[in-house]
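Item description
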Amino acid sequence: MDQVTAEDRQSAKAVNFGLIYAMGAEGLRGYARVVYNVDLTLEAARRFRSTFFEAYSGIAEWHGSTAAKTRSEARTLSGRRRKWQSAAKLTELLNTPVQGTSADITKKALGLLPQRLADTGGQIIGTVHDEIILEVPEKMAMEAAVILNEIMIQAGKAYLGKVPVEVDVTIGETWAEK
């Protein structure tokens, strides 16, 4: 891990977040440049794409089975449904179960947190995508961090079953310190 550079990490984010939604090599190249400030050659993007789908053949199968059907709805793992008036784009059909389930996990955690935070003096002050922001008296920060970590894992496991759930909790004076 100590040999992984900041650029390596940014490249990995571009590959993981781009390819899960079926980007081609050219799309990955542009996405990496615009979103992560990483310049990939077309050949490197092709190589990343090929290696990714060899390593994660289940994702390639999921893409193939999703693309083979003309559908106008998709569901999250909780069963929440998203509908389109006509056939949905492949990227939308792939995005909904991933991002929608992430939202389901966050919502479940938000529902469980207030009761668990009651003795900490902490409160939920915001959410950003899959992040929950708490405001807690400084002396209770560590306890609240442990509670948040436990609740997020509990909420994730409710939908993901045996899939490992990993959570990063950060304590700071401001959200900018995350």
Remarks:
- DSSP finds six helices and four strands in the chain.
